[in-house]
Design a protein that fits this description.
The complex is a heterodimer of chains A (about 150) and B (about 170). Chain A contains two helices and six strands, in the order αβββαβββ. Chain A is α+β, with helices and mostly antiparallel strands and about 150 residues long. The N terminus of chain A is likely disordered. In chain B, the strands form two sheets. In chain B, strands 1, 2, 3, 6, 7, 8, 9, 10 and 11 form a nine-stranded antiparallel beta sheet that branches. A two-stranded antiparallel ribbon of chain B has the order 4-5. The longest helix of chain B is centred in the middle third of the chain and has 12 residues. Chain B is globular. Classes of the chains: A alpha+beta (about 150), B mainly beta (about 170). The interface between A and B is small, with 11 and 12 residues.
Chain lengths: ~150, ~170
């Protein structure tokens, strides 16, 4: 299954500076490391792969020296128009392969963020079917990082 | 010493990171103050005044206090090669098991919220006992080395200043 030609132009969703920064870092990391194109967003009529944060970043621990440990949960979403079951399986296999790669490799985060780990938190599966027959397949992961003072 | 005031905004509480303990990882002649408590979420000094009260034959209650014994726990204290203080303590406790050295550590507590903002109040304890109470952790987690400090030795009050890269300099009164 190949992706349609990428559309021109993209939008960076509104969010706090840290969220936007980390999202871009992860997208660039996936593209550079796997060669798979990841769009910032996609329009209804096009298929493609995007990375979306499912929840805002939140602190899990605050340290007495002023730093913190945080978690960003995000999803890789593959929008496609599968013609058959094999098409759906291919979409899930792509997402699973990307999730495996992400959990086994380390992105370089910009200061002051320090990477700790990425964990996969769901299996790749179809999560939404559009009226026009397009399907969203997704896998959920979490990025854990720290800011140390 | 005259009473000090807090240099923070009145009406607002004071952030925990305005109170930091440092371990001298240098020498007495040229101390290097390394912060203690990286990745520690909760740590407070416990102050024991050895209080005692009596009631005299007139019915009055009198209390006495002694100079306090101050202790503080730091846990879990996950090991980190960049944590100079932990690396020193690991060497003393785990590698060398040097009990005498661990009982004579030089520490500094800086109260960044008290006194002048550029030179806040600080207190140095030249003979602290640092007891490493464990080494390990749960599966899938990190190696932690919790420890407990008993501040001791000669207590010297003064001020602290922050230099380049956060280097702390202590100036005694």
């Amino acid at each position: 299954m190949t992706q349609n030609d990428p559309y021109s132009g993209c939008t960076i969703p509104v969010g706090n500076a840290n969220t936007a920064t980390l999202r871009k870092v992860l997208i660039d990391w996936i593209q550079d490391g796997t060669g798979v194109r990841v769009d910032y967003d996609f329009r209804e009529k096009y298929s493609g792969l995007t990375l979306a944060f499912t929840a805002g970043a939140f602190k899990r621990k605050d340290y007495i020296l002023g730093g913190y440990h945080a978690k960003y949960q995000f999803a890789l979403i593959y929008r496609t128009y599968p013609e058959d079951r094999e098409g759906r399986e291919t979409a899930d296999e792509l997402l699973t392969a990307l999730a495996d790669w992400m959990t086994q490799n380390r992105p370089v985060l910009p200061e002051p963020f320090k990477f700790r780990k990425i964990t996969q938190e769901s299996l790749a599966q179809m999560t939404h079917r559009h009226e026009n027959g397009m399907e969203d397949h997704s896998v959920t992961l979490s990025l854990f990082f720290e800011v140390i003072h | 010493m005259a009473d000090l005031t807090f240099n923070t905004t009145g009406g607002l509480t004071i952030a925990r990171e305005m109170l930091i303990a440092y371990l001298n990882t240098g020498t007495n002649a040229q101390p290097v103050w390394s912060p203690v408590g990286k990745r520690v979420e909760d740590s407070s000094t416990e102050i024991d005044w050895e209080s005692n009260t009596i009631r005299d034959i007139l019915g009055s209650t009198w209390g006495t206090l002694k100079k306090p014994t101050i202790t503080q726990k730091f846990e879990p204290s996950d090991l980190d090669g960049d944590d100079t203080a932990l690396v020193k303590l690991w060497n003393l406790a785990v590698k060398d098991q040097d009990a005498q050295a661990l009982a004579a550590q030089d520490m500094l507590i800086v109260h960044f919220y008290a006194g002048e903002e550029v030179s806040p109040f600080a207190e140095r304890y030249t003979g602290c006992m640092i007891e490493i109470t464990g080494l390990g952790g749960e599966g899938g987690g990190n190696i932690g080395m919790p420890f407990e400090v008993t501040y001791g030795g000669t207590r010297i009050t003064g001020t602290a200043t922050l230099g380049t890269g956060g280097a702390v300099t202590f100036t005694p009164d």
